[in-house]
Amino acid sequence: MLQFCLLIIEVILLFYITFNVAYVFIYSIAGLFYKRTNFSAITIKKYNKFAILIPTYKNDEVLLNSVIHNLKQSYSSELFDLIVIADTLEKSTIAKLRAQPVQVIEVAFDESTKAKSINTALTLLPENVYDYCMVLDVDNVMEHDFLTKINARLQHDEVIIQAHRTAKNLDTPFAILDGLSEEINNHIFRKGHVAIGVTSALSGSGQAMKYNAYKKLMYEIESSVEDKELEFALGKNKIKVHFENDALVYDEKVQNAAVFSSQRTRWVASQFFDFKVVLRTGIFHLIRYGNFDFFDKALQRVILPRILLIGLAFFSCFLLFIPYTQLGWYFVALFGMCSFAYIIAIPRSYYSLKTIKATFKLLQAFRLMVLAMSRSKSGAKSFIHTEHSSTLKEK
């Protein structure tokens, strides 16, 4: 009886891990075939005007620093507006912002969310002025020619394009792990997907979308997992998300375990938020409408976060040492496949001694992710404030 029960548990675990590993393995291989954009071959016929929204909750110092840097674009200053949506900022910060060539929209809510801030701003901005809307997090900094590259990619009237969000700082082991996780996601869920014609994942910031389409889709979204809800809205409407790997938005990575845990609580909440309902809807849309992009988004709801997957695959290998188990070597093979998928997704810039040292924090990161899962319900209901401290220095 004991042997039979262990076998059932092993089979269920094996099926779930196999599904997860197969998914990341296939798209990781596909990411190797991503084609980079030849910007020199693009003829610029249209110069779009961008509304760049920066919703912020506190983080005054980091906001001021990022605003100053984001104003320094090679793209014409007449063709983009920085719009700070200020929630709970100091009066002195508001005054400093108003001294810059930016727009400031002050908001206040009983329960703040990024979506509420964005929707409030969209109702106050003028109609028929902007071609595209872009959202940046408070710590995000666009590279100097970012808008020039994005505008070039939008010459065929694309609805939405996701830029490459990458690490601003790699100064602590947790920052390295966070940046590493972002790059693996870029490879698998963005480069890998678009390489075979599947819609790219959103990053939560750094995406440019047609202004009117964005305003319409965001109108129904209020939760703190607005990026995931927007992904599903795009999928349902068969709107393809493109990805540009060479347009960089620098994003601050978490500095320590406390911030890592807080941020992952929100991320895990977005990962498993009503996933049963979404998965059923995804299957329906695949069968009824042949909408594979939406079905793929639904599948991602049951894919484990990268640290949890590699941790679960690793610890499952220890079944080899438990009596009466029969499938131990299969778990070893899955751990090998998962490791290989991650290794080929890691950019060469991360192959360093600092990265090797950072991997010693993986066990702690795995434990924090498990704790984040236990707190994930609250993460989908309210704004989880992430502390920021990294700023870019003037050159």
Attribute tags:
Spore Coat Polysaccharide Biosynthesis Protein SpsA, Chain A; globular; about 400 residues; 16 helices; 8-stranded mixed beta sheet; alpha/beta; 2 domains
Topology:
Layout: H1 2-31, E1 50-57, H2 60-70, E2 80-87, H3 91-98, E3 103-107, H4 114-124, E4 132-135, E5 141-142, H5 146-153, E6 160-167, H6 173-195, E7 207-210, H7 211-218, H8 226-236, E8 241-251, H9 257-272, H10 275-289, H11 292-300, H12 306-316, H13 328-345, H14 353-358, H15 362-374, H16 376-379
Parallel strand pairs: 1-2, 1-4, 2-3, 6-8
Antiparallel strand pairs: 4-7, 5-8, 6-7
Helix pairs in contact: 1-6, 1-12, 1-13, 8-11, 9-15, 10-11, 12-13
Characterize this entry briefly.
Helix content is 51%, strand content 13%.
Mind explaining what this structure looks like?
With 395 residues, the protein is α/β, with parallel strands linked by helices. The protein folds into 2 domains: 123 residues, no CATH class; 211 residues, Spore Coat Polysaccharide Biosynthesis Protein SpsA, Chain A (Alpha-Beta Complex). Helices cover 51% and strands 13% of the residues. The chain has an 8-stranded mixed sheet, sandwiched between helices. Helix 3 links the parallel strand 2 and strand 3. The protein is globular, with a radius of gyration of 22 Å.
